Structure formats: C-alpha cells, structure tokens
Amino acid sequence: MTGNKDAAQQYEDRLNSGSSSSGMGAWLWHRAKPYTPPWIVTGAVGLAGAGANTVWADSPWAGVGLTLASVGLTAATWWAGKATGPQRRLHSAITVAAGSAWLTSAALSGPLTGPLPHLYLMGGATLALSWNIRQVMRSAAGETSGPDSDKGLLEKVGLARTKLKDVRVEPNRVTVPYELPAGELTNEDVSKSIPRIASALDVPTTAIRVQHDPDSARKGQFVIVPEDMLKTPTVWPGPYAPGESVAVPLRIGVYDDGSDLVLPLLDAIHMLIMGMTGSGKTEGALDVLFELLTRKDMVVWLADAAKAGQDFQPLIPAMDWAALDTPSAGAMVAAVQAVIPARTAWLRDHGYRAWEPAAAEPQTNPAHSCAASGACGCPGMPYLVAWMEEAAKLLRDLGDDVFTGIAQEARSAGVSLVVSMQRASGYQLSTDTRASLPAAMCFGVRGDDAGFALPEEVLDAGANPAAWGNKRKGYVYLVSAGVDEDLYANPARTFWTGPSGEYEKAAGWIVQQFAGVRPALDAVTSAAAEKAAGKLFADRRARAGAPAPAAAVPQQTGAQESAQEVARLVDPEDAELDATAELPSPEANTELPQAKPSTEEARELLDEMVRMLASVGPGTIAVRDLGPYLEQIGRDRSWVSKEMKRMAEEGRLAATGEAGVYRLIPALAGAAG
Length: 673
What we know:
single chain; Gyrase A, domain 2; Rossmann fold; ten-stranded mixed sheet; five-stranded antiparallel sheet; about 40% helix; nucleotide-binding; FtsK_dom
C-alpha cells in the first residue's frame, strides 16, 4: 500500500538534478551522487575522531562524557525510530552505535591506535554500503518497509497513526489487521474511509471490506480482493443435496473467493429478495427454487400476479400451488394466514416446539404422538414455502401490512415467507413486516435503496450493491442467520441457469426427476387452506395448468356463443344468479309491507352484519354473502356493493382484487359509518 510512482519519481529527480557537466565522468558522478551521503558521513566520523583525539586524548572526564553521549545518542535513535519500520529502526540504531563507539575510542586512544584504523576502513565501508543497498532496493521497488510504507496512504485517507499488523496474503485476497490510535479514531471512521482507500489503491469500492473486531471499537482488519473473480458467471452445477431434507442448506452461487454461497433456510426462516430490474433477481430466485424442488420434505406455493408466472412456467408443475392472478394471489395470502394456526396446533399435539425434519415423516416415534398410548402413526407435515414474487402489486392491492402477521406468526409453524420485490421502501412494505424478514438477498440497487434490505453494519463494512446497479447481473449480498457474519459484506454471484433453452431443459429435468421425491401437501394444511380460499385452492392445479389441446375443445353452438356474450355483460357480483328463474308474483306475498329502514339504519344494520361475519367467517366477505340479509337491510345488492366500497375507502375493509370480495380488518370493521 505505497506510492510506487512517487518513490520512483523522487529517485529519478535525484538522478537528474544538480549537474551540468558533460562526458562519461560527469555521467558517472551524476549517477553516483544519490549514494554519496553514507560515505560522506563515514569520512566526517573519521575526521571527527582525529580532531577529538587532539583535544581530549589525556582527559578521563572526556572519556566518561563521550561514552555517555554514545549511549544516549544510540537510545535516542532507537526511540526516534519507533514510528518507522522495524528494519529501519534496527539499522539506524546499529549504525549510530557503531559510529559513536569508534569515535569515542578514537578520541581517547587515537584513530591510528591498534585495530581502530582497520575497524574504521572495514566497518565504515560496510555500514555505508548497507545504506547504499537499502537505498537501491527502496528506489527500485518503491518500497519503504512495513507500516512505514503505508504511512502516507493512511494519512491521505484520514487514518493517520493507524498501526497495521501482520499482513496475510492469499490468492486474490489480502488481509491486513489494523489498530487505530486510542481515543482518536473508531471503526466507524474506517468504514467512512473505504471509498478513499479504494481510490488510493485504484480498485472498486466493492473490492475492499472491513471486518470489525466485536470486542474492540478500534481494531479490525481490511480485506482487499484486487481482482473481481465473479466477472465470469458460474453455470448451475446441479442440485446440492438432491433428495435430502430442506434442513440441508441451499447452494445458490459462489463468493468472490470461490467458496459456495449457501442459504440455510431453516435458520433464515423468512427472506426478502430485492433488486432493480436487470440485476439478476430472477436468476437468484430460480437458483433457490431449483434447490427447494429437489428436496424430500418441501412444498412450494408461488404467487405471481404481476407477471402471471412468466419466469417460472417450466417449474410450475412441480409446485403445489401457483397463484398467477390477483384473486388467486389474494386467496393464497388468506390461506397462508389460515394454515399457520392449524400447522402450529398439529406440531404442538405431536410434541414439536418447532418444525424439524422428523415432522415430515410418518409419526412412528412415541415421543411425537398425538395419541395417549404409543405412536400415533399420523402422516407427516412437510415444510411450506410461500413465495410472493413481485410482491409490490400484492401490497398495493391488499395493503402494506398484509404479510406482517404471517412473518411474525409463522416462525414455529414450518412456514417460510419469501417476499421478492424491486424496492422494499416504507411506502410499499410496512416497517413491521420488513423487521420480521430477518434474511435478505440484495442484488444491484439504485442510490441508498440498499438500506431497505441490508443492516447498517453490513453497509458500514463495505457492502455497496448500488455500485453494481444492473450492470453486474447476479451479484448479490446475502445476510442470514446461519451464515458467518464476516461473509455478510462479501460480494457473491448466483448461478447462471443458462439461456432460455438450457433453463427449460434444467427445469424440466427437475420436474420429472424429482417427482417421486417431492411430498404431497399434508391434510391439515390442505383443509385449512381450502376453508380459507375455497375453490381458488381446490381448483388450483386446473387454474395454473396449461390449456387443453385444440382437438379436445368441443365446437360451440350458436346458443352457447350467445350465452357467453351475455355473460360478459353481467356484473361479476351477480354471476351466481339464475337469469331464467321466474319472478315471484305479487300475490305470493300476503304479509303487510314493513317500513323501509332509513339510510342510517340500513348502514347500522350492514355494520352489524359485517361484525357478525367477521367473528365467524373465513377472513373475507363478499357482497353475495349478504344476499340473505338484503330484505332485512331494506336495500338491494347495488346499494350494499357501493356501501362496502365506501367502507374499503375508509379503511374499514381491504380490497382483495376479486370483484366484490373484501378482506376484513377486525379492529375497524365494526366502526360507525
């Protein structure tokens, strides 16, 4: 971490300065000048020894003074070299000690006495040459040794007086422990300096990350990855643990050091997948689904009302439920809400505090039995993943807190919620829901959007998905329980599932190869889901399936075509009415007509009906559900429909996306109109 160009330039400047002579001798002198200072100092020491001898040759006090001066000068040199590298410090101290010792001896005994002249010639020349060699090495390599080499850079980036410790060099990775000056800087200052360090080293900001010491506010280590090893995508290598439990982590990509990017789903529980258009978010989703659909105890529900499952069509046959329109997606949300208590009750009755792989097997263990005597033999309950793709549309239709209850309550029910969207801002996803999604995969984003998915400490450590945007498809940061925290700020890249033809081939292989591995949905979850979603769940496979072949479609008669034309003009809320039924004759009603309730009275009656249905219903209410009460309210279906729309606008009901069907908000459903 030093300025090689600066050192080389200084060296060249010294060579090219101060000489106007010509000829070979002048050129040699010009080249030799930078190396003359050690020899000049050596000569000066010799002259100083001879001169001192003429003054202090017969003075014992001079001997004491010179000895003390030699020791003091050596100690001062050692102390002054504290801020430099250990090599320079030791070299300087030895040079001063040797020179001052010879000077003292020469002053007291004479420079030509005994071995002193030989020591002067050999020792002086050796020390001078050692400094010349050091200068040649430093000038040629641009190296100033150890922490001294980094002093200028650290001062430039605002980390002056920072100590760098033992550097560990690995293939394409340099780890540099640091220690900041006490009371002057903190790890936060290091995080803020990352862009400047990257600029000084001429590497992208994502190549530098900081790992803080959890036991210290001023210690940690820099991790520098100078070469981006993720530029070339890695083709999906196949399932990581085919036929195994979902408890085995999912392998979905590689880190920049070549190690596997794995997602421990049972530790992550719920996950947010976020990234802008073109960032590779769909590729990452496919990698996760490829893994899920090869496991023996996993069931997948997918809701994609925004794009009707466009990116997942080849995988839909392997999914238990694919909700590809708004009514089905809304029904899936209601179904997930309904299955949580049912699954929790089953797990509780079988002695499980939370879902574990044994819960997916037949219950032959007496310790996990709902029977009083011995094993109950109940069928198992597979793990359930509810995947909400392009969830922004669902949130707009159902409300930004629609997933909050699911995320908060599903932890122990063997249900994971995956919310995939481009931007998880507070305008789209409630703060409570986002806080309940502990794991995140953040692909490239714009500006400060990464803060919606990644914790602040991960961003401080150097994670910067905004540096990629949609220019690095598949680049991702993964934050999850079960993943080493030191890897949170490490860039990774999800596997590439190949061009469209290869992707369809791989997806088809998964659908066929693991058809016998994937479990069927358990009866407990199925019953709760059907109660909440009705035919949208019961007919889920037909709704998501491919259309029948043209040869199998019967030809329509003219009467059938006419009936279909009329059906298209019918209000969806009246679709179940029989238009051919005869109207009752006026004479049929022999009772005296009752007074029609006023508008306020009718609204009060409607509120009562809503409260009643809220207490016993499946979580949604339709205009048709109030048909039996129209006479009591004294209004027709049209009036009730308008009133329910008004209640939805006031926030007392929430639209589901299905005509005439609303989701109840229990706290507000019975409020006065």
